[in-house]
Structures are given as structure tokens and as C-alpha cells.
Amino acid sequence: MNKTIEIQINKTANSKLPHTDFENLAFGQTTSDHMFIADYYDGDWHGMRIEPYAPLSIHPANATLHYGQSVFEGLKAYKNKEDEVLVFRADSNFRRLNESARRMCIPELPEEIFMEGMARLLELDRDWVPARPGCSLYIRPFIFATDEYLGIRPSNKYKFMILTCPVGHYYAKPVSVKVETRYTRAIEGGTGAAKAAGNYAGSLYPALQAQKQGYDQLLWTDGKTHQFIEESGTMNVMFVINGKLVTAPTTTGTILKGITRDSVLILAKELGMQYEERFISVSELQDALEKGVLEEAFGTGTAATVAHIQRIHVNDKDYVLPEKPRDSFSYKVLTILDDIKYGRREDAHGWISKY
Ligand SMILES: *Cc1c(COP(=O)(O)O)cnc(C)c1O
């Protein structure tokens, strides 16, 4: 960051803080007092500002409503004992936002707008970062097309916004998942590597079918053969088989490059845990379950950090995984990551920025 930008700040006169029940936070329902906005038009970003959190007025022909030209990010701010606000690997989220933007023909965002916008917003709404254990402030940066035009082409105008929501524990309990062999989240050449709005719209129907059958999430398989495991719901997925950590590689463009995934792999290396980035087939997974050598299965993502998988449905059979002992890899890595995020452990990787 070498440029500084000017940000207009319009503070709310009516903070929602006194009316917010921090004991009962449902993910994404409670928003903080302010939001950051920047507008793109005439080939540049303009009007950086923070305003009281409020609805936008949208033209009925808004391009995003019709064609979904929109990308987003998700990261979190945590409070340490000293009441400082810590954010985990924001530079990675910034880079990924622009990678997603490129895929969706959205103009890239300058780093200083992302970083300064987030910094000022966190400064203003720092009392919205919960100090309670396990809680955090979810940060949602996003860019969407704002042309008022029904023709199909990349929009000429966009909005970049950041909103924040205080959140409690996500996925507190272990999840059950079902291997999906009919529907597809992502295909080679598609948009699966981008955090693009439409990816999530397309995943809702298959996920709902699984939920009706009593599963929390899907285990997505590749779109061509449905024989290889790709992700779990909106998380990356990892397995420990015979003492070795295995997760899908990100080289096919069908796997979202999770920052939690990357962090877990870095820590695995440091912990001396053997790992492989390779595709694991449904039959290998089932085989490992049958033989009892699938020691751990878990999703990784910002929302939950690590979501333990307790039950897996594969080829019409339900397998229940054994309870994870406290010395399992997934618990160990979750504890380390949480300790770094909440400032209880030295940040040896330079992952934390303070506000
Ligand atoms: C965001 C996301 C992830 C996890 O990414 P993190 O950076 O770890 O939060 C994994 N898969 C999908 C499909 C996602 O959208």
C-alpha cells in the first residue's frame, strides 16, 4: 500500500449497538452500523465513503439482478485480550477478490481502496467486534455490476462495498455430508475457482435436496466423471487417511482456493504432518471408510475454520466416523489457527493485521 485515499465518513446518529443481543447471533442476520462504498464508472473508482448501514435503491434493469456479474469475499476480525482488532490474511482475500473479478470481467480494485476501506470501517465499528470466545466480526467485501441495461455485456459501472456482521460460532456441531454424483458445483473452464455469486445460486437446489434427506452439506464431485471429491458445501474438504492428510489440488480451476485450506497446509508442513494435494476418488473414500482407515474428514473455510464431518453418505451407504480425539490433526490445527486469530499465539507467518 503506497497510496492513501480519501474516504468521506458519514456516521450514524442511531447506533444499533444498544439493541443488539450478542448472546444470540445468527450468522449474517445482524449487521453493524456502517458500510463502505466505492463506485466504478468512466474507467476508475470514485466516491470512497462510509455511510450508515442502509438499503440501496436498485434500478429494475440492474445488470447484476439479471446476469449475476458479481463477486465477493469473506474474512473475519477478531478481538484479542488487549481489545485490539485482528484480521486474518486480508491480503490474500484482496488478491482473490481481484482474481475472481478478472474471471467475471469486473474491473480490479486497487489495494488501497480495499485495505483503507476495511481499516476505516473497522475503526468506526470496532465495538461491533465481539470479544466473546469463538465470536468474530464477519467482513463481506463485494463488487457488483450496476449498469442499467438489459443487453448482455460486461457492465461499465460497478459498486464495491464492505459490510460487516457480528457472528457467533458457525457449525458448532459436526456435520453430515452426502456425496453428490448428479449435480455439479464447478467444471473445468467454468467459474468454480471464482467467488462468483452465480456459483452459489446453482448450488442451492442440490444442497436443499440433501438437506431434505437429513444431510447438512454435499460432498461435490467433479463435473465430468463424478468420481472425484472436490469440495464440501462452500468449504474445501480434507481427509486424513492412514495418518496422511489429503486434499484436492487447486490446479483444475474447479476448486476454490481457500485461505483456510492454504493455512492448514502450511501448518501441516510445520507440524510434520504428511500431506498430499491430489484428487481422492469416491471409491477410495468408500474403501477407506469400509476399512476404518479414514481417520478424519473436515471442511475448511473462514466461517467455521474447521468443520468436522461426522457422517458421510456414499453409494447408498451411511458411514459414521469415530469421535475425534483431542490430539487429532484437525483439532490441533483448529486450535492453532484460532489461537493465531485471537492473538493467543505468536503470529509467526505475518498473517495478522491489527486495527
Ligand atoms: C470461500 C470458499 C471456500 C473457503 O475459502 P476460505 O478462504 O478458506 O474462506 C471454499 N470453497 C468455496 C466454494 C468457497 O466459496
Topology:
Blueprint: E1 8-9, E2 34-41, E3 44-52, H1 63-67, E4 70-72, E5 75-79, E6 85-88, H2 90-103, H3 111-124, E7 136-145, E8 158-167, E9 175-180, H4 197-212, E10 217-221, E11 229-232, E12 235-241, E13 244-247, H5 259-270, E14 275-277, H6 282-291, E15 294-301, E16 305-314, E17 317-320, H7 329-341, E18 352-354
Helix pairs in contact: 5-7
The site of pyridoxal-5'-phosphate has 14 residues, from strand 12, helix 5 and strand 15.
Verbal overview:
This protein has helices spanning 63-67, 90-103, 111-124, 197-212, 259-270, 282-291, 329-341, and strands at residues 8-9, 34-41, 44-52, 70-72, 75-79, 85-88, 136-145, 158-167, 175-180, 217-221, 229-232, 235-241, 244-247, 275-277, 294-301, 305-314, 317-320, 352-354. It has 355 residues and is of the alpha+beta class. The protein folds into two domains: 8-169, Aminotransferase class 4, branched-chain amino acid transferase, N-terminal domain (D-amino Acid Aminotransferase, Chain A, domain 1); 175-341, D-amino Acid Aminotransferase, subunit A, domain 2 (D-amino Acid Aminotransferase, Chain A, domain 2, Alpha-Beta Barrel). Strand 12 and strand 13 (244-247) form a beta hairpin. Helix 5 crosses helix 7 (329-341). The model has no long low-confidence stretch (mean pLDDT 95). Bound molecules: pyridoxal-5'-phosphate (PLP).
In short:
This protein is an alpha+beta fold.
What descriptors fit this protein?
alpha+beta; D-amino Acid Aminotransferase, Chain A, domain 1; D-amino Acid Aminotransferase, Chain A, domain 2; 2 domains; 9-stranded mixed sheet; 30% strand; binds pyridoxal-5'-phosphate
